[in-house]
Hints:
It catalyses: ATP + protein L-histidine = ADP + protein N-phospho-L-histidine. About 65% of the residues lie in helices and about 10% in strands.
Amino acid sequence: MCSGTARPATAQQPLTLGGFCIAVSLVSGLGYSVNLLTDDRLPARSVATPSIALATGVLALLTCGLRRARRLLILICCGFTVLSVDRLAHSALKDHVAMAFLLAASVYAVPAWPEMKVVLSRGRASAMVERQEHHAGLLAGELHDEVLQLLALTRRRLDAARLLDDPGALRAAMEDASRTLDEQAGTLRRIIATVSPATVQGLGLAESVTALAGQVAAENGLVVDVDVQGDRPHACTGENGVNLAVYRVAQEALTNVVKHADARHVTLALVCRDDGISLTVTDDGRGLGANPPRAAEGYGMQGMRWRCEAYGGSFSARSAGTAGTVVRAVFPLRNCRKTRAS
């Protein structure tokens, strides 16, 4: 189970199972605490104790390479296993043994806490890596399909013209190659701007989002209205991470409109205040349908939600009445006043 040669699809299963075990442990622990406070006997008359024992035991098996975290989970598992047995045949000795295990676990939790934080954050880290791999795959696909293929085609045309020993054909092939190189230079600049939008640092958030909306409108025949509110110089301009996250959400929302919405008109509202930044993208396209399940969200929607949650914000996507979609992202700026004062 701890083999490092497992394939990514196989490695994802233990992470999902580990997250489920953590959730079961938390819910069962809450149930056990409530039962313990309302009962004069130590063993809770519920399924909480065997649930915690089973969940922590499985989680200990899944905790590879983290010895202290595994030992802590084993101590907790042993303590609640004794309590589970004690439910069937209550005795003071079993109570004392269970409390000894749990007391040892509470003491050992101090040195094991750094490794436990790793266990708790593995699911989130896995999701982040998965999204990064997805975007890297998209970037590799664009480079292969657009740039590499056309460059190889241009090379073959030049080779064919050279073999003909015809100056006119060679000149025409060189002119065609020159046009292709100019086009691919523009494609590479677009990909670079997508990966690292320097305009966010150079122009500021409001100007960058406005320029992005204008570019999307010009390239796809859309009408994109941009409404910027708030005083940008006082809206914590030093929050570059938040600025880039807002820009990425706007970029992904407009990309989804172009690819999936079949819309004609888009409204982008950006509100920059001292306490936070909000972005709302509304289109008149086909919409998301009634109550779309969150599990059915694609990578684009999940990426926008993750960017908002990474900065303590909120994200929502819903259908706008009879037609269209409303995407809203809110990013709080908790340290703005401290930044301005300093």
